[in-house]
Specification:
Strand 42 and strand 43 form a beta hairpin. The chain is built from eleven helices and 64 strands. The strands form 17 sheets. A nine-stranded antiparallel β-sheet has the order 50-51-52-53-64-59-58-55-56. Strands 3-2-7-13-10-11 form a six-stranded antiparallel β-sheet, with no helix packed on it. The protein has four domains: about 150 residues, Jelly Rolls; about 240 residues, Alpha-Beta Barrel (TIM Barrel); about 100 residues, Sandwich (Immunoglobulin-like); about 250 residues, Distorted Sandwich (Beta-galactosidase, Chain A, domain 5). By secondary structure, it is mainly beta.
Length: about 950
């Protein structure tokens, strides 16, 4: 050490002694060189070798990816694969420089420079000297001891060389040539840590549901004659247990054991956390102190049975999640972790798989505190790390993460990216010895009693849950665009819930991985079909499947579809919690009236409401919710019920109609009007006019051929009815007066039996029709044409706000909704939800706003679907599913949708009973009402809906 530094240190020691501060800090001191997260960064000097803004020194914000700051180029992992064997890439290298000072008080301290994550090969120098071997592997915390290279009291220079691609082919195979975006740079924080020379390097805790506490304390060196003390504290900070041991000169690992009486257990439903403070002491002097949070829980895999937590079998309601945000890529910030965990729990999920690499450490903290079961995964996307490179990465991952109670499994790679040499490595660093799984996509790869095979259909799953192994797919119901996720989930979840060895699984995946391209005017790019796999959009926009999953996974499981005759306020319920009694939940019922079909009115009005505590129904038991409704409850339009969990968050809200469609339509179908219908027949066109509305029919085809609204303007609704399945031939038309109305009857041969039109003096046009089908059909009903480009929006009374599919009817409730026109194709820009186009269920009435004026369609019959215009659910080799003819359809059957793995009818049917085609073997009879204008409500206080 230079004389200047020695004199400086001596003077500092003298100052501390004179001020009574003879003991150095006993806790780890942290000095950030980068920012703390991607929203709180520091400026470093930077040079990139290729791509945008390359070949010059400039500055960059750290942490963060260089692509997101206008450097280098973008790569999607699959872009690098050619002919399935070789790969090519732009091997960008980034040079970083940063000057820093360290406190002179760090003399005689162990000082480490720590990188939480860097992509990918990272070479580090301090003051021109290499600090150690190049680190290979992107998602892992690594550190170097640099105390002998620092200059105390002077400027120090940190230089980092980061290579986007690794010099090791196995690292590229495991991390870089994958089905996700590839980035470069120091994307997680960098900091210095200063510790006493004698310190605790890391700890590993095994805290069981019995209260047994077992802890390995790993010292940084072998120490003789020191005391190690552990103090266990509850959430209030009260000490509930202590244990101590003395070090020896022969071992650097100290084992501490004790028992805490009746601890509050950790689970996803009750995430009770404890903390342990560990002190290293020499005599009465405290040399070093550290702390960890943990939870008391016991995880068991009972082979040929199931997964048990704290002695109770649990079922996994999980989702896969990438660390990703459009503006930042895989660099993140604490609020983003919180947003994601809250959204996952809002869907009533209880688990998350960290695909396909360990997440930032804060995400695991949030899972610990809010309650999610976690699979923590070693990277290995269909290719594995070599043993030489991968073994240190396993250690780095487990040492960092072992004490998180949320982690219930370790995953040794994804879909063939398993190096079997690693399977027994996880237990070397994890005292609790959690089970290691293989997240795989080929049968026969079960390990440790758990089969995680990906993308099995409903019927193959039936066989797997009857096999010897527990079945827990780590990917299923692939949610590319609008497929999968909620579609088919009801059948699949019931199968897992009711099967002994069905353990649930993890939907692929949470969010569309859309990156904001700095080289493409900041557009969000999902790389075609590759990354549009989310239940939510890139900025967490909720797709239709979000609320579907929320309903299906609701731990308050209610299957009542409609209120039965003689309903007395009793609703059957199944408690699908694993640990929570329903008396820990709260409920609210509401009697509501739907807002009337008037300008600018949507939603509903609450007439009366009541609150009650849930009944005593134990976990996984069934019972009845008893609603104390007022005597006049039948006067309301609908009954709503909301359930709230112990955390006061809404579990789900159900709505049942009280009144029939016919009763709900009375206020608009009984408007006052002139008492005449005019009839005009000219050139094979028959025109009826009432209340200033005209409708015309082609006597050669029997179809509606023209409409004028009550302002005399043409409305282009025409060319129907046409059957969407089956055939028909028009045979004739007759027309006649019927009371004050006028009737047109069209006859047919084939599947369309008849169509009967009746023009009322009010201007309402009633259409009664019947068709007969015998077989299985993707859709059934009638259709008309209308130019999509003229439509501005829709308002309706029915289920919403999202569109539905035959195998995704959940997640929508009765109300009055309004949606402005959008051309959203799910999973692509501009991510405006709910989609305007699609199948909408149980429509009572729907009003379309167009450039030509408004018109309304209503049905007094139950269970009508309305199809709006052309759309697709999945855009694979061709858009899927196939659409009915026409533009606006009124349907009795709609198609199911598959996932990325099933984009034809035969594959979709494999998703289960609800994914079969519509089986129709009888006549279907229905009535529709049309009004080409803005209908007036009847001025009758008893029938007029309240505002």
């Amino acid at each position: 050490m230079k004389l200047k530094n020695i004199l400086y240190a001596l003077s500092l020691c003298f100052f501390l002694v004179m001020n009574g501060q003879t003991q150095s800090p006993v806790k780890k001191e942290i000095q950030y060189l980068s920012g703390t997260d991607v929203k709180h960064t520091k400026t470093w000097d930077f040079w990139v070798t290729a791509g945008c803004n390359s070949g010059k020194w400039t500055t960059i914000q750290v942490p963060g990816h260089w692509e997101q700051q206008g450097f280098g180029g973008y790569n999607y992992g699959r872009d690098n694969v050619t002919n399935g064997k070789n790969f090519h890439y732009h091997d960008e290298k980034g040079f970083y420089k940063y000057e820093f000072e360290v406190p002179a008080s760090w003399i005689n301290k162990e000082v480490n420079v720590v990188f939480e994550g860097s992509m990918t090969d990272t070479e580090v120098k301090i003051n021109g000297k290499l600090v150690g071997a190049v680190h290979q592997g992107s998602f892992y915390r690594f550190k170097y001891n640099i105390e002998d290279k620092l200059k105390l009291g002077q400027k120090n220079l940190l230089e980092v060389l980061v290579s986007k691609m690794s010099a090791d082919k196995s690292v590229n195979g495991a991390e870089r040539l994958a089905d996700f975006w590839i980035f470069g740079g120091i994307f997680r924080p960098v900091y210095l840590e200063a510790l006493p020379k004698e310190n605790i390097a890391w700890t590993s805790i095994d805290a069981k549901a019995t209260g047994s506490f077992n802890m390995n304390v790993h010292l940084n060196n072998k120490l003789d004659g020191y005391d190690v003390l552990a103090e266990i504290m509850d959430a209030k900070g009260s000490v509930v247990g202590t244990t101590t041991a003395k070090t020896t000169a022969t071992d650097s690992v100290i084992n501490l054991k004790t028992t805490v009486k009746k601890p509050k257990l950790w689970s996803a439903e009750s995430p009770n956390l404890y903390s342990v403070k560990v002190s290293l002491k020499k005599g009465t002097d405290k040399i070093y102190e550290t702390s960890d949070k943990f939870g008391f829980r016991t995880i068991e895999v009972r082979k040929e049975d199931g997964i048990y937590l704290n002695g109770t079998k649990i079922k996994i309601k999980g989702v896969n999640r990438h660390v990703f945000w459009p503006e930042y890529g895989r660099a993140t910030y604490p609020e983003a972790d919180l947003i994601d965990v809250k959204l996952i729990k809002e869907m009533n999920m209880n688990a998350v798989r960290c695909s396909h690499y360990p997440p930032d450490k804060n995400f695991l903290r949030v899972c610990d505190s809010l309650g999610l079961y976690v699979i923590d995964e070693l990277a290995g996307w269909q290719k594995a790390y070599s043993t030489k490179v991968g073994e240190p990465l396993v250690k780095e991952m487990v040492v960092r993460d072992a004490n998180h109670p949320s982690i219930i499994f370790w995953s040794n790679g994804n879909e063939g990216g398993h190096n079997f040499d690693f399977d027994d490595d996880f237990g070397k660093y994890d005292l609790s010895n959690r089970t290691v799984i293989h997240a795989h996509h080929k049968p026969g790869n079960a390990i440790n009693g758990i089969d995680c095979n990906h993308y099995e259909d409903y019927y193959s799953t039936q066989k797997l849950v009857a096999d010897a192994n527990i079945y827990m797919p780590t990917e299923f119901l692939h949610a590319m665009q609008d497929g999968g996720a909620g579609a088919g989930l009801a059948d699949m979840w019931e199968l897992h819930w009711n099967s002994k060895k069905g353990a649930g699984g993890f939907i692929w995946d949470f969010a569309d991985e859309g990156i904001m391209r700095t080289d493409l005017n900041n557009m969000i790019d999902v790389n075609g079909n590759n990354a549009a796999d989310g239940i939510v959009g890139p900025h967490r926009e909720k797709e239709g499947s979000f609320n579907v999953i929320k309903e299906i996974y609701s731990p308050v499981h209610i299957t009542l579809k409609e209120l039965p005759e003689g309903f007395k306020g009793e609703i059957p319920v199944e408690n699908c919690y694993h640990f929570t009694n329903l008396n820990e939940c709260n409920f609210q019922w509401e009697l509501i009236n739907f807002n009337g079909k008037q300008e600018d009115e949507t939603g509903h009005t609450i007439v009366k409401k009541g609150n009650f505590v849930g009944p005593n129904i134990a976990a996984v038991a069934k019972g009845v919710l008893k609603l104390e409704l007022p005597a006049d409850w039948k006067n309301s339009d609908a009954l709503a019920l909301s359930a709230y969990g112990p955390d006061k968050e809404e579990i789900y809200r159900w709505v049942w109609k009280i009144k029939s469609n016919a009763d709900l339509l009375k206020p608009i179908l009984t408007a006052e009007a002139p008492k005449t219908v005019a009839v005009k027949e000219e050139r094979n066109i028959l025109t009826l006019t009432a209340n200033a509305i005209s409708v015309s029919f082609d006597e050669k085809t029997g179809e509606l051929s023209g409409v004028k609204n009550d302002n005399g303007s043409a409305i282009s609704f025409k060319d129907g009815p046409v059957l969407v399945s089956g055939t028909s031939s028009f045979t004739g038309l007759k027309h006649f007066k019927e009371g004050e109305a006028y009737v047109i009857e069209a006859s047919y041969t084939g599947n369309l039996n008849y169509v009967r039109w009746k023009m009322q003096p009010t201007g309402w046009l009633e259409m009664d029709y019947q068709y007969t089908l015998d077989g299985e059909f993707p859709f059934a009903g009638i259709t008309f044409s209308y130019p999509e480009g003229l439509v501005m929006g829709a308002k309706w009374l029915g289920k919403g706000p999202s569109r539905v599919w035959k195998n995704r009817l959940e997640g929508v409730t009765f109300d009055v909704y309004e949606n402005r026109y959008n051309n959203t194709q799910t999973g692509t820009a501009p991510w405006i939800y709910p989609e305007f186009k699609g199948y909408f269920s149980e429509i009572v009435w729907m009003e379309l706003s167009t450039l030509e004026g408004k018109f309304t369609v209503a049905s007094s019959d139950e269970d009508m679907f309305v199809r709006l215009f052309d759309f697709y659910g999945i855009n694979a080799n061709k858009p899927h599913p196939k659409l009915p003819v026409g533009d606006i359809s009124f349907l009795d059957g709609i198609p199911p949708i598959g996932s990325k793995m099933g984009v034809n009818d035969s594959n979709v049917r494999g998703f289960g009973p609800n994914s079969e085609l519509n089986s129709i073997h009888k006549p279907i009879k229905r009535s529709l009402y049309f009004y080409f204008g803005s209908p007036k409500l009847k001025e009758n206080k008893e029938e007029k809906l309240p505002k």
